[in-house]
Input
Amino acid sequence: MEFVCRECNKSFSSKLGLGNHISNSYNKKDYYDKWIRKYGENICPICSGKNEFRSLRDGYTKTCKKCSNKIRFPSRKEYWIYRGYTEDQADKKVIESQKEKSDKVKKHHNNATMDYWLKKGYSKLEAIEKIRKRQSTFSKNLCIEKYGEIDGLKKWRARQVNWQKTLHDKSIEELKRINKLKGVTLENMIRKWGEIDGTEKYNDWKLTLGGRGKSVSNISQKLFFSILENIIDKNNVKFEKHQKKFYIKEDKKFYYYDFKYHNKIIEFNGDLFHANPLLYNSEEYPNFYYPNLTSKEIWKTDKIKLEKLDNIDMRYLIIWESEFKKDPDEILKKCLNFLNSGE
Output
């Protein structure tokens, strides 16, 4: 069998002889492009970039260098596009792949569940203790205890920021799936906190729901009842568990306020839900009930709410959850001074 050079029609008895001739006489890539290359072989099917030339025998790489690793893993959209799926189909396949992998990991390695420890031979009480230790491996309080208040908060916040960056690198479909898992259900709370603490947190959450379906902070009600005890004119006091919250209605929209006494308002802001600026920067996403809102957007909403009070000449005082926990007596005194002042 003869092997013929297409450029000069010279014949050789073997592929090796032809290959050596081409290598010595011509540019291998130019020869391949002119006589051998298939249509589109040098174009990356993922990003339409340029594939790299390898050799006369192997031709071009299957993808460009940038996409070479992306087609190796089913958790990447490019893996499925390379195998002939459309972009929408690839997004769905990625979600299915990630869910399948997650289920496998949870089945064998979820040490936040009772079954995991019982199967390992621990008693129920021992399993409960194991779960509690597992759930307390990284928290704000542990960081503060280990590194001090300033450095501890920095480390904790850095982890939250990194987590948010990872979250927002995901596809839109995956973000929708994650946000759905954040709904306050018994199943989701158990998934996040384990069977014991998850059930407790879910029951606590149910108890904090107000009559209108709005969440009520028990710690804020504790402060407000302490204030109520020190006020003579109790009929003019309004908060959730005492004559309901005061609100302003404007263009079919309601603005609810935590505590009202005559022309004065006290707003009790949870550090997480209202993005305490001492704990969160403007680009973080602290409120898991509204995971798409940044701190900056939360502050903007709160500012609009307070401006409604300025329009009707009502004064207000902001109390942060963390400052009340740190010194409840001092905060009570601060609130009473505000309410009793003649200004």
